[in-house]
Each structure stands twice: as structure tokens, then as C-alpha cells.
Amino acid sequence: MILFHGSNTDINDIDLNMCRPFKDFGRGFYLTTIKEQAVNMAKRVSRIYGGDPMVNIFEFNIESAYGMNIKEFSQTSAEWAIFVMNNRSRGFTDNDSDACNNDSKYDIVIGPVADDGLTALIETYAHGLADIEKIVSKMRYKNVSDQYSFHTERAVRLLKKVGVENV
Length: 167
What we know:
The protein is an alpha+beta fold and 167 residues long. Helix content is 29%, strand content 21%.
């Protein structure tokens, strides 16, 4: 499969230490199957940090990840919302929990992106203003996109760079 990564630079060597913490699925290298999503991210990153918007293109064969610890969310759910909330929270400390990936226990995590609208719903739950099932029912009406996040060197080695495009 082809995966896209929006950036402000051409990425030839993936350095997980350069990846920001407190993302949806924890610190990792994030890609998507949706080119338009990567283009939008490249433009956003370039506006914030400078540089030229670029889409880095990688090939990934999920069958080559056999034996790796992979967590997959096929859709938004209570489990997904709690997982995202825990990974994004600077105050969450139970890193041994299966409901977070701050310790990179999962080599690869696949699932929906928590956009600003979904983030607002998750915050509503975090502040005790709604129960998780109510939040999840509202999420089902949101348009979601996908993300593949790679959290370990072993996982990153499965990505083969096949191109880069200026956008």
C-alpha cells in the first residue's frame, strides 16, 4: 500500500526522536492513505515552521509487519476515544495501560484521526460534561480520515521511500 506523509521537508531518514509526543497514538511517524490529507498537513506544517510543503511517499506492506504489536481501530469508538485522550494528555501516567501508547508498546497503530471537532468532543468527556457513549454517538456523524503511526525503529524500517512531491 502507498502511504503519504505531509511535511515541510524531504524526509529520507525517519528519526523517531524528531517526532512530537502527545499525538493521537503517541510519539511516532504518522502517515495516511489519503493524499489530500497529507497535502493539507504539509501546508499546515509549512505555515507553522517554515519550509516548503512536501508530500513524502512511502510503500508499506502490512504483511511484512507479521509478529509486530499492532493496534488497529477500524472506526471511532469508546476505546479509540479513550486511547487518543490518554496519549494526548500530559497528565496521563499509567503508561503500562493498554489504553495508551506513550511507551511505544505498539509498533504500529492504525485508525481515525481526531480532528478539531473530535478533539472538542473528547474534551467534553474528559471534563465530565458527557458520558463516553454519548460522545461516541456524536463522533459517528463526523467525517474521519485515517492515520498509520509507526512507533519503533523496527516498524519504521518497514517503510520504503518511493518519492516526494512539492505541493
